[in-house]
Every structure is written in C-alpha cells, then in structure tokens.
Amino acid sequence: MKKQLLRLFFTALFSALIHADVALAVEVAPRISDREIIERLTRLEEGQQSMGRQIEQRMEDMHKQIEQRFQAMEQRMEAMHKQIEQRFQAMEQRMETMHKQTEQRFQAMEQRMEAVQEQVEQRMEAMQKQTEQRFLSMERRMDAQWSLTLVLIMAIIGLVGFVVWDRKTALKPLERRFGRIAHELERDLGVPSPEGSRLTRLIAALREIAPDDPKLSERIREALRRHSLLEEEAPKRA
How many distinct structural domains can be found in the chain? Predict the structure, then answer.
C-alpha cells in the first residue's frame, strides 16, 4: 500500500514537471515539430521510468536498510533482553546462593548455639551433680561424725557408769568388811567406854597386880611378848 501511494505521488510530480517543461518550451519555442515532441516525451518517459526505477530501488534499499536496522535493533533488543535475562538470572542465582549461604550460616549458627547450649546444660548438670555429691559427702561425713560423737558420748557415759558401778561394787564389800571389823572391835575392845578399851583397862589392871606378885608379872610380860602385845624395851646405855 505504501509503495503504491509513493508511486502515484512520484508519477504526479513528474507529470507536473513535464507539463511545466512543455509550457516553457512552448513559450520559448512555439514552433516545435511533432517528432521532436514525441522524442522528448519518450525521453521524458524513459527518464521518468529510470527515475521511477531508481526511486523504487532507493525505496527498496531504504526499506531493506530500515528492515536491516529494525532487525539489528530487534537483534540488539533481543541481545539486550537476553543480557537482561541473563543478568536477572545471574542475580537470581546470586540471590539464591546468598540465600542458601545465609540459610547455611543461620543453620550453622543455630547448630553452634544448640551445641553451646547443650555444653552449658551439660556443665550445669555436671556442676549440679558435683555439688550434690559434695553435699551428700558432707552430709555423710557429718552423719559419720555425729554418729562417732554419739558413740564417744555413749562410750564415755558407759565408762563413767561402769566406773561408778565398779566403784560401788568394789567399795561395798570393803565398806561391809570395815563396818564388820569396826563392829567387832567395838564389841571386843569396848571402845565406847570413857576409860578406854578393854585391852587398855586390862593392861592397867595387870600393872596394878604386877608389883605385888613379881612372878605373875614376869609371866604376863612373857605371854604378852609371845602374842606381840608388849614391845621389848631397848637396852639401857651405861
């Protein structure tokens, strides 16, 4: 459609130019033969045809150039589109890799945090167990010391009780014996008498009798010496 319109436009333009040349020629040379007119018309037609062919060639060349430019532009646009797509794909890949790296880092951080938390919990549990074991050992030691203290106290109380009981059991026979001896002495010697014991009174009575009977006095002395009731007198010094 565009080509036809261009052809009509150029045909009208050339016809106008031809009519103008004819008018000028008529004015300049009004006496021209028909042959010359025909030759000129044929020349004009040939020139018009050649010009039309040139114009068509140029139009085709321009159309080809325009088509080539449009194709080049389309190729460039496609190349740019491909480059943009590639860049977007590269950006998406980078974003995906960055997202993956970020996820991996977060996962690694979470794993580290979990490991650290587990280690802290294990240490806390170990410390708690050690503390409980220490408290248990301290309680056991305190219980053992308290038991030992109670045993020592009971042993001391038992020892004191045994000593008291032993003293009582050991002193009771002595007390009984001494009481019996004292009772026998009081009974035999007559200690409660204000004049002295019976032995003292007996010796006093013998002393009173001895001066009157020297033989009896000598016999009494010998009897007292035999029974260790009279001490021998020390020899007199000259």
Answer: 2
